[in-house]
């Protein structure tokens, strides 16, 4: 990925809770400013959390650079939108895709695009060493280890269910907007260099709760106007569905089979051992979402 675009911090060490994106949308929809002194009162949170709400709004592509609602936000989160309270897993997968693609929360982009290619199982220390190495490739002063450590902690809390044996903030750690995707598993503690360390893993899988429409939406968004894309690119390319959704080869093939069964304008072929997804007819991202959510 483009290493010059790495971005860390800004979340104030808060994970994005289930209800936050709707709150952010409503606030921005009514043309209120996150920098206003009344934001603390109007949003009912502390100043640091106001900053975090704004950060996650931008990170999930709910707010644009001017703090106005995006087309995605209007589609999903307005009262008559597709899923204003994010009750459908498809919406969570869609948000996960935009979080990675937007790359404001760069640790997630790095983990799903690069770190998983090096190792499926890891400790927090291994993740931190990876981040230090990647930032040093760009600029040794681009981010300090304390910042990277905070981002690592937020990433783990964003994507994994808490360890019930540890002291946790139930409201914070069980209400993360992406936890239900079950992308990041906590493994048992193991002896690591003479001390016990907690391990994590992001395994590739079938992702049966991931609708093919969301996969196709991501392909159209990632490869606009491209009439043919190799299976290899779709599986391991930067910001590909295989990378972002942690799909196994079989899982990706299943999603492609579903979309080609449903849409005659999409064909999957194999010539001389080269597997290619071809678009014989143009499809818009909006149309593909309407196939899942209905016309809203």
Description:
Helices cover 47% and strands 11% of the residues. The chain is mainly alpha-helical. A hairpin with a 2-residue loop joins strand 2 (185-192) and strand 3. The two termini are 35 Å apart.
Roughly how many Å apart are the termini? 35 Å
Return the structural class: mainly alpha
> What level of helicity do the residues show?
40-55%
User: What is the mean predicted local confidence, pLDDT?
Assistant: 90
Q: State Rg.
A: 20 Å
What is the number of domains? 2
Main sheet characteristics = 3 strands, antiparallel
Strand order of the largest sheet: 1-3-2
Q: How many E-type strands?
A: 6
* H-E string: HHHHHHEHHHEEHEHHHEEH
Helices and strands in order:
Layout: H1 20-29, H2 39-43, H3 47-59, H4 71-77, H5 89-102, H6 106-118, E1 121-123, H7 124-138, H8 145-159, H9 170-173, E2 185-192, E3 195-201, H10 212-222, E4 228-230, H11 231-236, H12 241-244, H13 249-262, E5 266-271, E6 274-279, H14 285-293
Antiparallel strand pairs: 1-3, 2-3, 4-6, 5-6
Helix pairs in contact: 1-3, 7-8, 10-13, 10-14
Structural key phrases:
3-stranded antiparallel β-sheet; globular; 11% strand; single chain; Arc Repressor Mutant, subunit A; 6 strands; 2 domains; mainly alpha; 296 residues
Summarize the structure.
This protein has 296 residues and is mostly helical. The protein has helices at residues 20-29, 39-43, 47-59, 71-77, 89-102, 106-118, 124-138, 145-159, 170-173, 212-222, 231-236, 241-244, 249-262, 285-293; strands spanning 121-123, 185-192, 195-201, 228-230, 266-271, 274-279.
């Amino acid at each position: 990925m483009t290493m010059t675009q790495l971005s860390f911090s800004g979340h104030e060490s808060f994970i994005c809770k289930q209800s936050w994106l709707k709150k952010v949308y409503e606030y921005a929809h009514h043309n209120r400013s996150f920098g206003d002194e009344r934001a603390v009162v109007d949003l009912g949170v502390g100043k640091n959390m106001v900053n975090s709400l704004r950060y996650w709004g931008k990170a999930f592509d709910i707010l644009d650079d001017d703090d106005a609602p995006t087309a995605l936000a209007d589609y999903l989160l307005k009262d008559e939108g597709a899923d204003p309270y994010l009750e459908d897993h498809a919406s969570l997968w869609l948000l996960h895709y935009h979080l990675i693609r937007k790359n404001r929360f760069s640790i997630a982009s790095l983990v799903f695009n690069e770190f998983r290619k090096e190792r499926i199982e890891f400790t927090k220390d291994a993740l931190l060493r990876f981040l230090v190495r990647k930032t040093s490739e760009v600029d040794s002063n681009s981010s300090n280890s304390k910042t990277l450590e905070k981002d690592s902690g937020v990433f783990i809390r964003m994507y994994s269910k808490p360890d019930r044996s540890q002291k946790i903030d139930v409201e914070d750690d069980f209400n993360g907007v992406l936890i239900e995707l079950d992308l990041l598993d906590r493994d048992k503690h193991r002896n690591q260099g003479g001390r016990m360390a907690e391990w994590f893993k992001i395994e590739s899988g079938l992702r049966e709760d991931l609708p093919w429409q969301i996969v196709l939406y991501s392909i159209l968004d990632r490869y606009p106007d491209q009439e043919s894309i190799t299976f290899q690119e779709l599986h391991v390319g930067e910001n590909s569905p295989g990378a972002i959704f942690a799909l196994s080869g079989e899982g990706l093939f299943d999603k492609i089979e579903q979309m080609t069964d449903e849409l005659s304008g999409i064909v999957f072929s194999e010539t001389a051992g080269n597997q290619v997804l071809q678009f014989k007819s143009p499809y818009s991202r909006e149309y593909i979402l309407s196939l899942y959510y209905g016309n809203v």
